[in-house]
Specification:
Blueprint: H1 2-11, E1 14-23, E2 27-38, E3 48-49, H2 71-97, H3 99-104, H4 107-140, H5 145-148, E4 158-164, H6 168-184
Antiparallel strand pairs: 1-2, 1-4, 2-3
């Protein structure tokens, strides 16, 4: 279930960040420019877009992009989640469909155990990498963006951070992995006489 949450919440994310721009006395009302981003989070390819047919402060906003490329962490996380999901299906088929083969073999349970250990370690690594990337994505699309855009550094152009899409579903992708580790400590031993 955790792997489904992982690739569904991260892999399907789309968001945008908005900046309000004005350049008095030419344009006194704020105009909105937006940069749309999503999985795989190559923010350096997400350019700012003014409203169609509107020239805001004689700036080619499309030439300005968000900062950062977090695709490697996001793709590692989603790809590994898909692999874990497929492994769980295969293991379930083995446990249910070929129980006698599994119980009679000495190697099969050991192979299953080793694969599970490796998968658990890589799950922790991929989740940690994705959690760090998510933190950086929040910074790169947040209110500090105004200070990074060179047109916004000019005195005649006023820029204000507008908003950014809620990243609650991305938080869930990281929190779900953390809850899995927490739940491992609460497992109860099997009842006496259970085989």
């Amino acid at each position: 279930i955790a792997s489904i949450f992982a690739f569904a919440t991260c892999g399907g994310f789309k968001g945008q960040t908005e900046i309000q721009v004005s350049c008095p006395p030419t344009i006194t009302e704020n105009k909105t420019i937006t940069a749309t981003f999503g999985y795989p989070f190559r923010l350096n390819e997400a350019s700012f877009q003014p409203p169609p047919g509107v020239n805001i402060c004689d700036v080619n906003w499309k030439s300005y992009v968000l900062i950062g490329d977090y695709s490697s962490s996001a793709q590692f996380y989603v790809t590994f989640a898909v692999f874990v999901f497929l492994y769980c299906i295969a293991a379930l088929l083995l446990y249910v469909g070929y129980t006698s083969l599994y119980l009679d073999s000495r190697k099969l349970p050991m192979i299953d155990f080793v694969v599970t250990l490796v998968a658990t370690f890589l799950w922790l690594v991929s989740t940690s990498a994705w959690a760090k990337a998510l933190t950086d994505i929040k910074i790169a699309t947040g209110h500090n963006i105004v200070q990074e855009l060179s047109p916004c550094k000019k005195k005649e152009i006023l820029c204000y951070f507008g908003s950014v899409t809620s990243m609650g579903s991305l938080n869930v992708s990281v929190a779900q992995a953390g809850m899995q580790w927490h739940d491992l400590g609460t497992l109860q031993p099997p009842p006496p006489g259970f085989k």
